[in-house]
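Exercise: predict the structure of this protein bound to zinc ion.
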Amino acid sequence: MTELLYYPDNEYQKEFESEVSKVKEMDNYICLKETLFYKEGGGQPADQGKISWDGSEAEVVDVQKEHGEVRHYIEGDFPEPGQEVHGEIDWERRYKHMRMHTAQHILSWVALQEYDATTAGNQIHEDQSRIDFKPVDFSEEDVEKIEKEANALIQKGLEVRKKEMARELVEEQMTEGRTNLDLIPESVDPLRVVVIGEDDICPCGGTHVDNINEIGRINIVNRVSKGENVERLEFELEE
Ligand SMILES: [Zn+2]
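Solution:
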């Protein structure tokens, strides 16, 4: 099993040392004993970056958890099993994902508070992200209100805490409808949660900023109706 160095609360480290535990050159991937590279999941894309050793180098183009292992898909040189390597994540890309992901949590929280809208899905990108809400039918005014309240929250500069929490406590403290805990296998306990300020507790495996003032400003740029009672909001961030 690969140790995930960014858990539960180490999202600002950009470089690490590790050892190659598996090489599958035919399938273009390697596994490491530990990694800082985020594997795609929870609507957040994988990290990219590079690994290097003894004058050789490979680009990490994708990271996926498959068959219980974290596979780093690489292009370039291939190391041997047991090789000590230096890893470096593409920080610009990762930091945008962190800001976007925390912004998504804030929008989901505000929409739940104001409209009882639950988050049915989300997809983070560097430039534009989206959230699907249901059951809801937003008007233009509603969308403006969500954007305004989310940005007012950001102005407060609330701290974002990432930690492990007993499943029972999460069930007790999480606002109803914030996420569907039934979708997370019972065996996962404790859960890794993201807590914004004092109120918004949400199980999440993504990478997040430490303070919501790092997000900048949220601009909701589009509202799309995705069928009965499902609304998609697309948003961007300003520095
Ligand atoms: Zn999340």
